[in-house]
Design a protein that fits this description.
By secondary structure, this protein is α+β, with helices and mostly antiparallel strands. Among the domains are: 95 residues, Rossmann fold; 64 residues, Dna Ligase, domain 1, CATH 3.30.1490.270. It has 14 helices and 21 strands. The strands form 5 sheets. The protein has a 5-stranded mixed sheet. Helix 2 crosses helix 6 and helix 3 crosses helix 12. The longest helix has 25 residues. This is Circularly permuted ATP-grasp type 2 domain-containing protein.
């Protein structure tokens, strides 16, 4: 039987939730439902949508927004922040190492084949350390809570994490629609994120850069599920949003085409996967990237953020070694623990997982978005049998974890206020000036009763995340 989920507000409201609880007690349900409808109208008007590939209605889909905020105390956030800084520093150290001397492999901490034979291990990145040795400039670390003081990392997103536009727009709509609630709290701001992102990107410009670095955001185009975010961030930073067709490389320098002629780009914040970045190096059929882009990087004329090759740190089998990775590079125990994970590539772990499939969550090591996974307690006998066959055929492609009792927060649904399971994605920026994190992040909420799947592609929604300022 699954453990009882931790109620973040509590029947006797915890101190951080005291003012919210009092406001909910005095606020009619009709008022909440009106504000909920207004929030949906706000998001529809500004065009913040999320496409789900294969869905005929993808262009019309909004991520549902819940107007009841998720609240963290200053003390809770301080502990999270320390753990996030430690973890992202370790991720960058790991990436520097595996594309360089590979000391962690020589020390026997992580198996050589797990890294070197991993589909996400990028051969063109070997020996090409990016400026300042930083690989993942923007990381999204997914955090789950299972108790009053128990926060754990569910997965690392070190390649092209998305969702920060929702964090910022969620705060904007709360300030507009519920000023009487926001005024009762001292909420740490998140609106400085675009400014921090721009300064982070500028700080990692190549040493050859002279003057203020020119930054651009590379998008696959408006058909991409996160296109709104690409456009939003470029606009907020005051930089150009470009597609591959807008760019060219001449003399190992990247330029964008403008009405005044080619303009040099020093830092490219790419939201395009490695395989599509440069058709001369990766997929030759890609029309999303730029021929010779990797030459501009290799000769020291361009910083690509996040760096090519960071996908190896997203791998869920590599994730299972993160406590050892943190200890190897920092000499400290991990502040934020991992969720217990069975690596199906190991015979003993595979045998255990096959025996306990109805109790476990099984994930593809390179999966994302809630796809390709089995949630044992909610699966049919047929689905369990199908997954057992997949595991026996390709055990290297899967990991398994216990079915966690994710914490719940009060959430406004059709029937009123009810508890729903949540997770949290803080966004961690790493530049030449160190690691910086805006207080909060994107809280994702499983809107279906009893569901543990918070991904927007699987019907989840979002909440504003409040970190109390003192």
């Amino acid at each position: 039987m699954r453990a009882q989920a931790f109620d973040e507000m509590g029947k006797e409201p915890r101190q951080a939730y005291a003012a919210l609880s009092a406001w909910l007690d005095e606020t009619p349900d009709s008022y909440l439902q009106t504000r909920r409808a207004q929030a949906e109208l706000f998001f529809r008007r500004i065009g913040i949508t999320f496409a789900v590939y294969g869905d005929a209605q993808a262009d019309e889909r909004l991520i549902p927004f819940d107007i009841i905020p998720r609240i963290l105390s200053a003390e809770e956030w301080a502990g999270l922040e320390r753990g996030l800084v430690q973890r992202v520093n370790a991720l960058n150290a790991f990436l520097r190492d595996v594309y360089g001397p590979r000391e962690i492999i020589k020390a026997g901490i992580i198996p050589e084949e797990l890294v070197l034979r991993n589909p996400q291990f990028c051969l063109p990145a070997i020996g090409r350390t990016p400026p300042h040795g930083i690989y993942t400039h923007v990381a999204g670390i997914d955090i789950v809570r299972t108790g009053p003081d128990k926060f754990s990392v569910l997965e690392d997103n070190a390649r092209t994490p998305s969702g920060v536009s929702y964090m910022l727009e969620n705060r904007e709509v709360m300030l507009r629609l519920l000023p009487e609630l926001t005024d009762r709290h001292r909420i740490a701001p998140v609106e400085t994120y675009p400014e921090l992102l721009l300064s982070t990107l500028q700080s990692v410009a190549p040493p050859r850069c002279r003057g203020e670095p020119t930054v651009a955001v590379l998008t696959p185009g408006f058909h991409n599920s996160a296109y709104y975010e690409h456009s939003f961030l470029a606009d907020k930073m005051g930089v150009e949003l470009v597609e591959g067709s807008d760019l060219l490389v001449q003399g190992d320098v990247l330029y964008m085409r403008t009405t005044d002629g080619p303009q040099r780009i020093d830092v490219l914040y790419r939201r395009v996967d490695d395989a599509f970045l440069d058709p001369l190096v990766f997929r030759p059929d890609s029309a999303l990237g730029v021929p010779a882009l990797m030459s501009a990087f290799a000769t020291g004329n361009l910083t690509i953020a996040n760096a090519v090759g960071t996908g190896i740190a997203d791998d869920k089998a590599v994730y299972s070694y993160m406590p050892d990775i943190v200890r190897f590079y920092s000499g400290e125990d991990a502040i934020l623990e991992n969720v217990p994970t069975w690596r199906c590539r190991e015979p003993e772990a595979l045998a255990y997982v096959l025996e306990h499939l109805p109790e476990l969550v099984v994930k593809q090591v390179d999966g994302s978005g809630g796809y390709g996974m089995l949630i044992g307690p909610h699966a049919s006998k047929g689905q369990i049998a199908e997954f057992a066959a997949k595991l026996r055929a390709h055990p290297d492609g899967f990991v398994a974890q216990p079915t966690l009792a994710l914490s719940t927060c009060p959430t406004l649904v059709e029937q009123g206020i009810a508890p729903r399971h949540v997770d949290l994605r803080p966004f961690v920026l790493t530049g030449a000036q160190g690691v910086r994190i805006v207080p909060g992040g994107l809280t994702r909420v499983a809107l279906k009763e009893g569901s543990l799947v918070v991904n927007s592609s699987q019907g989840g929604g979002t909440k504003d995340t409040w970190v109390l300022d003192g």
